[in-house]
Every structure is written in C-alpha cells, then in structure tokens.
Amino acid sequence: MNWKQLLSTKRWGYEHREVSDQIDARSEFQRDYDRLIFSSPFRRLQNKTQVFPLPGAVFVHNRLTHSLEVASVGRSLGRLFYNIMKKENPNIDQEYPFLQEVGNIVSAACLSHDLGNPAFGHSGEAAISSYFTEGKGQVYKQLVSVEEWADLTHFEGNANALRILTHAFNGKDEKGFALTYATLASIVKYPCSAIEGHLKNNHHRKKYGYFDTETAAFRKIAKELGLKADPTNPNGYLRHPLVYLVEAADDICYNIIDLEDAHHLKILSYTEVEELLLPLCGGEDLRHRLDALADTGSRVELLRAKAINTLIHGCASVFAKNQDRFLAGTFETPLVDALDNNIVAQMKKISAISVARIYNAPTVVQIEVAGFKVMNALLEEFIPPYLKEDKGHFDKKIVAMIPDQFHTAQTDTYAKIRAVLDYVSGMTDIYAVDLYRKIKGISIPSLK
C-alpha cells in the first residue's frame, strides 16, 4: 500500500467529480469532519450511553463527548505523525501532497467511529444479537443466507457506522454522507464480513467491519485505495494504516477518561486514580503541582492531560517508525500495545481495574440489564409485524410508527429485518425507553 493512493480525496457518490482548484476555507477532509458534526446521527450520540447511566446529577461522558475527545486525540496523533515524517524528510509534501492532512482524516474518522452504536452501550449490541441467537428471532434463521445470519447474530456498531455513512436510506440522499474514501476506510477496524470475522488471534478479523449489504461498497473503497488482500482471508482486506491511529485515539480516551468519570462518581478514590495515572505522566515530577491543587477533581484533570499526552507521543512515534510494516499490513497489534513495556503494563493494570470496579459497578450493570430488556422487547414489537404480508390492524399501526426513511421496498426477509434494525439501533437511550413504555402501556402519550 502507498500513501498517494491511500489518501484519496475521491468522494462516495461523486467518484467522477474533479476536486475544485478554487480557493476554499476547508480541505476535502475538513469537509468530512464538518458534515459529521452537523449530522443528525452524530447529534443523537449525546443521549447514548458511553459507560455510566444518563442523565445524572454528576456529569459523565456520553457517546458524543467521547467521540469529540477521541477526534481531538486523533487529530493530534495525525499531526504528530506528519511532523515526525516532515522532520525526517523536508520534501515529503512533494512526494505525498496529502500527508499533511492525516490529522484531519483521522479526526473525521474518530468523530464517526461510534456513529453506528445502538443505545445503552455494548449491551445494546448484545441485545440485538441475542434476539436472534436466544430470543424469538431464531425463527428467521431458515429465511436468510448464512452470511446474512452471521450479521444478525453478531450486531456490530462499527459495521453499522459504514452503513449509515454510505447507505441510500428511503427519501434521503442516495449518496449517503458523501465522505471521502480515505475517511470511510479509516473507520473500518476489521475489514471483513461477519462470517469471516471473530478470530481472536487475527488483528484484522477480531470482529468484522461491514454487513453483507455493504460488502460491494467496501470492496469498491478497498480497490480505489489499494488496500491489500488479507492473506488469511481471500474475501477480506488488511487495514487501512490510519485505522491504527483511530483505534489508538479510542483506546487512549476510554482507558484514561473512564477513570476520571469513576472518580467523579466516587467509584474510585483520588489516591487510586493517582496511582494508576501518575506512571503514565512521562516521568515528569508533578508532585508540587498536584499538591498545590486543593480540588481532587482538578488533580485528576492534570493527571489525565499528562497521561494522554504521553500516550499520544508514544503512539505517533511508533506509527512513524514502523511505516513499512503498516503499509505492508504486517503490524499485528494495537499501537497502545506496542509502547514502552512499563506503559503497556500500566495500561493493562488500568484495564483490569476498569473491568473489576467500573464496568461492573452496580449502576453500570443496572443500565446494561435494563437496556438489554428494552432493546430486545422493541425488536419483538417491530420485526414480526414488519415481516407479515397479511398485516392486521394492530400490525399496521406498529409499522406506521417506523419513520419513512427506514422503510424498504425490498421484499426479502433480511432486507426487512435490516430496515427495523436501522430504526432501532439509531434510537437514543431516552427515546428507546420512552417508546418501550408507550408500546407496553406503562405510560400513555399526552393528549394535549
């Protein structure tokens, strides 16, 4: 793979349009970022759970604030990488004109990396999958292909993001978001289909990156950008190199910032957070600065900032030093796992504490269980009526509740199920709970 081809400005849906040489305030990749910022799916992330329940008396991160922070870290990673490359080769802009745009591409991809995640965090994904593996959705197995069934039984937010960005929804722009090919490829962590994914020891196939419906779309993107075929999978590809920076930005943010939220909610004490973050602060002696701050929240903010700074510089350096391996597709670990051994050990310690104390905290588990029940129930309310050819009165009423954009003219079972999943997976936590209550008769819509 080579940077000239990988950093294509070609836009989805506008493949034959020439890039204008007109002076503009934004580059093509900055346009991607702006389109995402102003989009409805992005705004809805403000009411989707990151880890802790929403809303609350104490501010915690939601999917929107998380995505903004990941985009900020991603931009820094991209800029640092470019600066390192520029220092080593002052003429690099002549060889690779768009390399200076890597920060903008990565930040746009980071902004959209959680766009396809359903309500209630990962429990929402699990609820959708379990409806088909353990729930009443099992009856549809014989009505879809093996590839389609793999999609349904392993709902994946990353694959759903690519669908949101490229699919021609009913009544919407048939070109989707019309993002650049480079940005679209940079969000696909696992460039394979569901039936080819879920290999724990394969970095490119740990999960999957596109639904069966988007297979042709991703192949088109891969061909344009020159992505290498995966030697372990004739139907899949190796990652676009910038995926590693997007992944690193996400890893850095959730590992560090979940500790900050846990401190705000008094799940972890200040002393515990300091012991976890101080070793990541680049060896800088922060004791005087920390002791000068009476507010423990401000101390955590300082530790968080210094830790993130260390991780950003480390990851950008690894990425720059290993260019040949990234372009060859032979780098087999996340960037954060390739840092200094002491940093990697500390990150693993943070991960272990997070699993034990944060992700299994009572409030987190409660929202996961509630979300699981709500999402599963909504699927059972909408899928059977939508699939019926001879709909009864109540079936028609239920189907009428689905917005026009999610309806499909296709008649096969998978397309109809996918239409319902598009609707349900796009719901915010609050909307899903409210709709569940109304359908179940727990609350009655106001007649005012």
Automatic annotation (TrEMBL):
Keyword Membrane: no
GO molecular function ontology, one term from the record: dGTPase activity
UniProt keyword list: Hydrolase
GO BP: dGTP catabolic process
InterPro entries: dGTP_triP_hydro_central_sf (IPR023293), dGTP_triphosphohydrolase_C (IPR027432), dGTPase (IPR006261), dGTPase-like (IPR050135), HD/PDEase_dom (IPR003607), HD_domain (IPR006674), PHydrolase_assoc_dom (IPR026875)
Positions of the HD/PDEase domain: 59-264
Keyword match Mitochondrion: no
One family name in Pfam for this protein: HD_assoc
Coiled-coil intervals: none
NCBIfam families: dGTP_triPase, PRK01096.1
Protein name: Deoxyguanosinetriphosphate triphosphohydrolase
